Amino acid sequence: xxxxxxTNLTKFYDTGELKVTGLDDISFKCDEGEMVSxxxxxxxxxxxxxxxxxxxxxxxxxxxxxxxxxxxxxxxQSYNLLPKISALQNVALPLIYSGENHRQQRSxxxxxxxxxxxxxxxxxxxxxxxxxxxxxxxxxxxxxxxxILADEPxxxxxxxxxxxxxxxxxxxHKKGITIVIVTHEEDIASYxxxxxxxxxxxxxEEKKR
Length: 209
Description:
Blueprint: E1 2-14, E2 19-31, E3 35-39, E4 48-51, E5 54-55, H1 61-71, E6 72-76, H2 87-98, H3 103-113, H4 129-141, E7 147-151, H5 159-174, E8 178-183, H6 186-189, E9 194-199, E10 202-208
């Protein structure tokens, strides 16, 4: 089953003096349960975009927010954790937005699933980069998403910690979660089943492993 389908994806960046093409008529599919990496300059936009069989171009803002919260988990290079609340509270944020109950129990279970429950009461400022990224991954998992989108998830980490994080993504993939990772590092891409190489806004190569 196709989980993500992009058709004729184009993105322009207009600086006022110069118009730069970020993505130029890109099309590709990602199957359910696949682990894919994308290498090249990052950017986003859409002409036609399907997620889990739904044409998101047809959705309004409220519907888009709902489908993102229910089906997608996001992991970022800079972690995007709120610095003044605990790891447990950071993980619970998507549940608050969606009005879910049993937030503490579910958030602790998510932290346990990524091996960081012992740091549940700590603030992000009291954690290492690898610990913060594990908290971010737990937050991404809290609503049991079908897809995790990770943008340079190891970009701020040392080699050993990067391998640990990628091993965690590999374990999540084995559980059936579809994972898409944007990276500039070939060794990180090597953890995935397929790599899509993008240059000058176009897909220039696909490599399967």
